[in-house]
Design a protein that fits this description.
Layout lengths: L2 E5 L2 E4 L4 E8 L7 E7 L6 E7 L5 E3 L7 E6 L4 E6 L8 E8 L9 E2 L3 E6 L1
Parallel strand pairs: 2-11
Antiparallel strand pairs: 1-3, 3-8, 4-5, 4-9, 5-6, 7-8, 9-10, 9-11
Length: 120
């Protein structure tokens, strides 16, 4: 069983930065993919970024490319999302997720989410 807990959300002005962290407890295996998703009220949860836990390969949604960076610390079982040049449309609840089958596989585990609010 894997448990995920997000932290680092908050309120920031447009153009600012935030750093989200996801702490994983339980066994994260090297073939896992770790991802970040976001959701706003009335909309479906959408993909933001993912990282292959073993190779470090990363993939991003077009809307965040060049502004967000996903990284992982295997020793600490943490995944980080560095968000720069934030825009009001980045406002959402951000969720950390883990996929046992790797990149492209369904996500099996989810955190509870952390709110990010970007003011204009």
């Amino acid at each position: 069983q894997v448990r995920l807990e997000e932290s680092g959300g908050g309120l920031v002005q447009a153009g600012g930065s935030l750093r989200l962290s996801c702490a994983a407890s339980g066994s994260i295996f090297s073939n896992y993919a770790m991802g970040w998703f976001r959701q706003t009220p009335g909309k479906e949860r959408s993909f933001v970024a993912t990282i292959n836990y073993r190779t470090g390969s990363t993939y991003y949604a077009d809307s965040v490319k060049g502004r967000f960076t996903i990284s992982r610390d295997n020793a600490k079982n943490t995944v980080t999302l560095q968000m720069n040049s934030l825009k009001p449309e980045d406002t959402a609840v951000y969720y950390c997720a883990a996929a046992e089958g790797g990149v492209g596989a369904p996500y099996n585990y989810w955190g509870r989410g952390t709110q990010v609010t970007v003011s204009s």
